[in-house]
Amino acid sequence: MPRILAIDYGTKRTGIAITDELQIIASGLTTVNTKELLDFLSDYLAKEEVSLILVGEPKQMNNTASESEIYIEAFLKKLDKKFPNIPVERVDERFTSKMAFQSMIDSGLKKKQRKNKALVDEISATLILQSYLYSK
């Protein structure tokens, strides 16, 4: 069975998470420089079969789009052009960064390790993927 890939898109860094082949477990894959994201995805998708790409949808508390949505929309157009055969779904990503940070505290990471923003992005992508899997 193909995997599901989740993206926590950021203007500088992008967190990526992936399911196992049975689409049961969400695991952090990596964080990449956003400028290198499409190249990374090209390499990854050449090696692994992915049936769905999830992209976080940042929203304000009043349910309106976040300021970063304009960048994500531009990325989504490039993604669709480069990988037209892989469907893309959006997943509400409100609070994922806070939840990621809290999970780092709960797992006992030291303060210096918690300042690693790349790790926060990867955990956020994992939370986006987990929320999608739970909703299914």
Automatic annotation (TrEMBL):
EC number, UniProt record: 3.1.-.-
Claim: Phosphoprotein is one of the keywords in the record: no
Annotated compartments: Cytoplasm
Positions of the YqgF/RNase H-like domain: 2-100
Entry annotated with the keyword Cytoplasm: yes
Enzyme class: hydrolase
Source organism superkingdom: Bacteria
SMART domains reported in the protein's UniProt record: YqgFc
Gene3D superfamilies: YqgF/RNase H-like domain (3.30.420.140)
Key words, A-Z: Cytoplasm, Hydrolase, Nuclease, Ribosome biogenesis
Main subcellular location of this protein, as a coarse class: cytoplasm
Family from the record: Belongs to the YqgF HJR family.
Function: Could be a nuclease involved in processing of the 5'-end of pre-16S rRNA.
Protein name, entry field: Putative pre-16S rRNA nuclease
Taxonomic lineage of the native organism: Bacteria, Pseudomonadati, Bacteroidota, Flavobacteriia, Flavobacteriales
Gene: ruvX
